[in-house]
Amino acid sequence: MIDINPNTRLIDLTVRQLLELIQSASGTPTQDAPKERRLEYGITGIARIFNCSISTANRIKASGKIDKAISQRGRLIVIDADKALELFNK
Predict the structure, then answer these.
(1) b/e map 58-73, b = 16+ CB within 10 Å
(2) N or C terminus of the chain: which is more exposed, having fewer CB within 10 Å?
(3) Number of structural domains in the chain
(4) Within a 10 A sphere around the Cβ of 13, how many other Cβ atoms?
(5) 16-74: per-residue pLDDT in tens?
(6) Element (H, E) at 15
């Protein structure tokens, strides 16, 4: 932790110094922001994730390798890109 002079005005602190001050005062570590999910939509989304053609994207979806990353309701297909890449590389 950076040593902060007790006479330092709050307005003169950087955001990092202020967060460290709050963290040390509360005794609990501050949480990092949760990682944002990257979503793709449809067969074209699968093609974008794997940088392949539409026909190859159809084969990847039909293979069942990335089923846990796909959520489908009717014709709407939503793919969690990071999870799809992880499952495909296993």
Answers:
(1) eebbeeeebeebbeee
(2) C
(3) 2
(4) 15
(5) 888 888 888 777 665 666 778 899 999 999 999 999 999 999 999 999 999 999 999 99
(6) helix 15-26
Q: Are residues 25 and 54 in the same domain?
A: no
9/7 Cα distance (integer angstroms): 6
Structure tokens at 71: 């959520």
Instruction: Give the pLDDT confidence score for residue 16 in this predicted structure.
Output: 85
Nearest one of 49, 50, 51 to 37, comparing CA atoms: 49
Q: Decide the pairing of beta strands 70-73 and 39-41.
A: unpaired
Give the single-character DSSP code of 10.
Answer: G
Query: 45 and 25 in one domain?
Result: no
Ordered strands of the 39-41 beta sheet: 39-41, 76-80, 70-73
Let me know whether 82 and 43 are in one domain: yes
